[in-house]
Write a structure and sequence with these properties.
The chain is of the alpha/beta class and 510 residues long. The protein has a 6-stranded mixed β-sheet, with helices on both faces. Helix 10 packs antiparallel against helix 11.
Length: 510
């Protein structure tokens, strides 16, 4: 509704100027600073007669600072502070967002100090000698109320204010208002922009989707991590017949009816771990303790930590295989057309993968894309709880970082109605993916690329120095062993053991 409706009135209540300006080809959001607004302190809002500055210009000449700004959030039309001694601009934090405004102080003899002039105007300066940031009294009162009623910290409140400043914050999902197409599962959810998705970031033509000989295999592989969260409990609803779902199955939580049908025919294999004493296996049938759901589980992309749409399920007892089977099946079928390989990370993959194919074949509600090869892996964090014969050990614990912010709202959602509970989780997971999408390139990938380039040069120098000291015959032998290892590591995890440090006890000379 927010994106489809006509734009609201943008006129400023002070200067009656619009919040957009014409660039010559389109309207662009701007700030009151750029359209010429000056806030005059003292003299009832009129220019100080002792000031020689000309305020008749409609457009304020401004320039960016050279200071580095930490762009954790999109700033939209936010303007950095300007440097002009005659017309200093300061950052004003208000309930409506973060703004950069031109502040004109009084220059009359006997005028108050700048911090006191800001106080009289209802602005609380962050410093008192040369204030560059100020908070309105209204935002201070609003934060106090949020802190008392909601327990909001100052950091979280300021993050909210910054996001209000951004013009791209998705207040509502949009894009389907004028389409007659029927919505599909997960259509109202955002997914990872870096994971391969044919038809979205991959061309559907055979030349692009079919893997050529020089195409890295990881580029055309879907990486998934599976995990459960027992903090997201949900109580039985009081009046389930009165509950109405607004977006059943359109977000991250799976559609209710089909999931219940799967559980009704699925066989519950009570099993004990034959690897080591894995808690997720042995406690899969824990008591529900009068809860409708003892937690949730699902899949996320293992590389970038984005929840996979329509792949989150709730647990009726514990983290049982029938629950995770359905979550994995939905994740493997979400925008994976012509992707032939998926690598899955799961804490108990050595036990879980034994029954996956049998479970899939025996259920009409489970499916794996034809021709897709599933390669099971175990996260590095949990490998010390496994035997050496288990699957290749790679770091795959990124989902724990996704549960942490979700657990903050889980207690408040515990007693909600079932549809409301799922939609709250949908919105939280969608926002998590959204923040990954807008920050992954500008902040994370660019920084990691610079670190990788620097690290590769340092590693190459260290390797070359070490290689010069090694015997030539041993170098040739090591290269041959490396080729064999990489060729066999998918089928034989023990092949990677050649990279382990080998220590031999020295001979005693006495």
């Amino acid at each position: 509704m927010v994106r489809e409706a006509p734009p609201p009135d943008r006129l400023c209540s002070v200067c009656k100027k619009d919040g957009v300006q014409w660039t010559g080809s389109f309207f662009q959001e701007t700030s009151l600073l750029k359209v010429g607004l000056h806030i005059h302190l003292a003299h009832d809002g009129t220019p100080c007669p002792s000031s020689s500055t000309d305020y008749s210009s409609d457009v304020f000449q401004w320039s960016d600072t050279d200071d580095d700004i930490d762009d954790n959030y999109p700033e939209g039309h936010f303007i950095p502070p300007v440097r002009d001694l005659d017309q200093p601009a300061i950052t004003i934090v208000d309930k409506s967002g973060v703004h950069s405004l031109s502040i004109c102080y009084c220059h009359c003899p006997g005028a108050l100090s700048r911090d006191m002039e800001l106080f009289q105007a209802g602005l609380f300066p962050a410093s008192f000698t040369r204030p560059k940031t100020a908070f309105t009294f209204a935002v201070s009162d609003n934060f106090l109320l949020d802190n008392l009623e909601c327990g909001t910290s100052a950091m979280n409140y300021y993050s909210k204010i910054r996001r209000l400043t951004s013009s791209i914050f998705p207040l509502m999902w949009h894009g389907f208002a004028h389409k007659d197409d029927q919505l599909k599962d997960g259509d109202l959810a955002l997914f990872c922009l870096a994971c391969p998705q044919p038809g979205i970031n991959l061309d559907l033509s055979t030349s692009m989707v079919t893997q050529s000989d020089d195409t890295p295999s990881w580029l055309m592989t879907r990486y998934l991590v599976m995990d459960g969260n027992f903090k997201a409990e949900h109580m039985h609803p009081v009046n389930p017949s009165d509950e109405v779902s607004l977006m059943d199955g359109l977000g991250f939580m799976v559609s209710n009816d089909r999931y219940k049908s799967h559980l009704a025919i699925a066989h519950d294999h009570v099993q004990r771990s034959d690897c080591n004493n894995h808690r997720a296996v042995n406690q899969a049938n824990a008591s529900p303790q009068r809860l409708e759901a003892t937690g949730i589980g699902g899949c996320a992309c293992a590389r970038h930590g984005c929840f996979v749409p329509h792949s989150m399920v709730d647990f009726q007892k514990g983290e049982r295989q029938m629950n995770m089977d359905y979550a994995l099946s939905q994740a493997l079928n979400y925008k994976t057309d012509r992707i032939s390989r998926a690598i899955t990370f799961y804490d108990i993959n050595c036990q879980y993968n034994k029954y996956l194919k049998d479970q899939t074949a025996s259920s009409m509600y489970l499916s794996i894309p034809i021709g897709m090869d599933i390669i099971p892996r175990i996260g590095l964090w949990h490998i010390h709880g496994h035997q050496d014969s288990c699957f290749v050990r790679i770091d795959g614990k990124i989902m724990e970082t996704l549960w942490a912010p979700l657990n903050i709202i889980s207690p408040s959602a515990r007693g909600m109605g079932t549809p409301h509970h799922k939609e709250v989780l949908d919105y939280q997971m969608n926002d998590c993916n959204f923040m990954k999408m807008i920050c992954i390139i500008a902040k994370f990938l660019s920084r990691k690329l610079k670190e990788a380039i620097k690290g590769a040069a340092e590693s190459k120098l260290a390797f070359d120095n070490l290689n010069e000291t090694a015997q030539p015959d041993m170098v040739i032998l090591w290269k041959e062993e490396e080729v064999i290892t990489h060729a066999n590591r998918a089928e034989d995890p023990a092949a990677m053991d050649i990279y382990e440090v080998r220590l031999e006890r020295g001979k005693c000379l006495l």
